[in-house]
Structure formats: C-alpha cells, structure tokens
Design goal:
Blueprint (H helix, E strand, L loop, with lengths): L3 H5 L1 H15 L8 H38 L3 H22 L13 E7 L4 H21 L2 E9 L5 E9 L3 H5 L4 E8 L8 E12 L3 H4 L7 E6 L6 H6 L3 E6 L5 E4 L5 H32 L10 E6 L5 E4 L5 E2 L2 H5 L4 H11 L5
Parallel strand pairs: 4-9
Antiparallel strand pairs: 1-3, 1-5, 2-3, 4-5, 6-7, 7-8, 9-10, 10-11
Helix pairs in contact: 2-3, 3-4
C-alpha cells in the first residue's frame, strides 16, 4: 500500500522548513526584498502543508486508540466512521496538491473571459460562463471581484476580468484555461436555428507587484476617458475610466467598472501586472520546451470543452473525456468533476 506521507515527502519538507527558517533569520535577508519575500512565502506554504499532514497523523492515532476502546460501543463506532469519512474526503482533496507543481498554483487568480466571433451569440455565452465561474467560486468558498466588464452590443458581454481569491485558486482554475464551445438553439434567432458559439477563458496568477515586476512611472502612460458602458449620467459625464499603456511590452489594459478613477487605476494595474507575469511564465515555458525540443501551442488553440444543449444535453472535456448529462448543474457552477478529472490527469506529468 502506498504511504501518503512518503508521496508528499513530509520529512523532506520539514528539512526544507529548517533551512528556510535559517535563511529567514539571516540579518541581511531584507537587503534583497524579492528574495526575502520569496523565502517567507515558501516558508509559510511549507509550514501550512506540514502542519496539515501532521494534524492528519494525530487524528489517525486518535482513531486507532478509539478503535481499541470501542468494543461493542455503537456510539464510539459511529464517531469513528464519521471521522474516517471526513479524513477520506480531506485526503482526496490533498491528493490534488500533487498536481500543484507550479510556484504560482497557490496564488489568487485573475480570470478573463473573452467572447469569440459570432456577435450576440458568443457574447451571451461569455456571460453564461461568467455566471458559471462566479457560482463555482461561491460554492468553493472563494471570494470574487469583477475588475472590469465590457458589455455586449445587444446582450451578454464582450469580455470580463474577475479576481478570484482563495487558497490554490490558480491551481484549481488552470483546468479551465482554453476555448469553451457551446451548441444550442439560439434564443436570439427568430428561426431558433442551432448555433455554435466560442469563448476563451484565461487564468492568470496574481502578481506580487513589489517582488516580481518593477514598473516605474516612466514605463507606463495612464489615460482617463469616459466610460462607454451602461451606468447612467454619471458614467457619461465623468472621465473615471482608466487606460494604461506599458511601453516595453506594448500591452494596453483598461478598466471602467467603477465610478472611482482611483479604483479603476488600481484594478488596471493589477490586470497589467498579471499580464506581464503571464508573459514571463510563457517565455520561460517556451525556452524550456525549446531546449527539450518540444512544441507549445499558443493563442486560442483548440477547444478544451464542449457544452451541448441541443439536440442532446452533454458537457464533455476533450482532454480527459470526462462528461455529464446534467448541463444545468454545470452551468450553475458544479465544475468539480471536470476540475478533479483534469488534475488527476496531470499528476506525475512534467509541466
């Protein structure tokens, strides 16, 4: 039988903690702020993992002791069964840490959804996806904040950017990065013809601004403009929307969701930092793949999942072949089956 403690190398992590504690106590640690914050972040993450596993170890010892005392006591046996079921669920959850190999998996996520070609159909599909992910995050206990939304021409949205905050937000949501395809009878077509719509979902790790990216005021241009979205007279008369251009990369981001120009600027900077960090990650991955002779697909690429509402009902992930006929539940945020299947499929694989 596989020993979970050996799989997660708790003893090895404890040795790493000891070494990190020595580094954190060095008098010159904060002379290099980026390295210092990296050390402290790693130390906190490894401490959290070890404490959780040592807690399991103690609970198992307590259960073993209860078993020796239980004899024919049905009440104690019921307590043991309940505790074992709870431990089993928590251990299953922790299994996925084997799939969280990236240093960014523990972070909060920036989730971006973009409607594909197809006008109102795709814009409505993008809004359906937004609702789906907001409901999923709520079910999981993550907090969300819509940083920016570009409304559709007639219905739906052209794009939306959402901050998803919670432990391993990037690790779980990375399964959603890619093109999502919807097949349904159009609610916007008088003939109710069948339409296929596409939307791109991007998952970016939130950047630690003062650690990973050094952006000086002269590196960017900040402009204000009047919001083009709905919102009444205030949105039309006040230049509260913000656009930031990063000269070196050519990236341009904007935010117009809030009435406060200051808050829109803060959100736009958060989005810009996430985009720049994503570029760094992609460049490193491409260089690693080049050295190994591998090819990396960029851009929209192929669809990762299909949501079919007509002529039959099914949601299928094309990477894992996981599927369900309960389309309503999926669109209402029940995504854990798809996320679990994806994470299991990448355990043991090199990223």
């Amino acid at each position: 039988m596989l020993n979970p403690w050996s799989v997660f190398d708790i003893a090895g992590k404890e040795k790493e903690i000891t070494e990190l504690q020595k580094q954190s106590a060095a008098p010159d640690l904060w002379q290099d702020r980026a390295n210092a914050q990296s050390v402290m972040r790693l130390l906190a993450e490894k401490n959290r993992t070890v404490q959780r596993w040592r807690g399991f170890e103690k609970r198992l010892a307590d259960i073993a002791e209860l078993i020796t005392l239980s004899a024919e006591d049905e009440a104690i046996q019921a307590d043991i069964e309940k505790e074992l079921n709870e431990l089993g669920s928590e251990l299953t959850e922790l299994e996925f840490q084997l799939a969280f190999k990236s240093e960014y998996d523990t972070r909060n996520a920036i989730l971006a959804i973009h409607a594909g070609a197809g006008g109102t159909e795709s814009q409505d599909w993008a809004e359906m996806l937004m609702r789906m992910y907001l409901r999923w995050a709520e079910r999981r206990g993550f907090t969300t904040e819509v940083l920016d939304t570009s409304p559709g021409d007639e219905a739906g949205i052209k794009s939306v950017i959402i901050a998803v905050n919670g432990e391993y937000a990037v690790g779980y949501l990375k399964s959603e990065h890619g093109v999502h395809r919807l097949v349904r009878l159009s609610p916007f077509d008088s003939d109710h013809a069948r339409h296929t719509s596409f939307a791109l979902v991007e998952v970016l790790p939130e950047a630690a601004a003062d650690v990973e990216l050094d952006i000086k005021p002269e590196d960017i241009k900040v402009e204000t403009f009047r919001s083009s979205g709905p919102g009444g007279q205030h949105m039309q008369k006040t230049s509260s929307a913000v656009r930031i251009t990063h000269f070196a990369s050519g990236l341009v981001v904007s935010c117009q969701s809030e009435r406060s120009q200051h808050q829109n600027k803060d959100y736009a900077m958060k989005i810009l930092l996430a985009r720049l960090l994503e570029r760094q990650i992609v460049q490193k991955a491409e260089e690693k793949a080049r050295l190994k002779g591998k090819r990396i697909d960029a851009g929209w690429g192929n669809q990762i999942r299909s949501y079919v509402l007509h002529p039959y009902r099914m949601v299928k992930d094309h990477r894992t072949d996981y599927e369900t006929g309960n389309t309503e539940a999926v669109l209402d945020g029940e995504l854990d089956g798809f996320i679990d299947a994806y994470l299991r499929s990448i355990i043991g694989k090199e990223e």
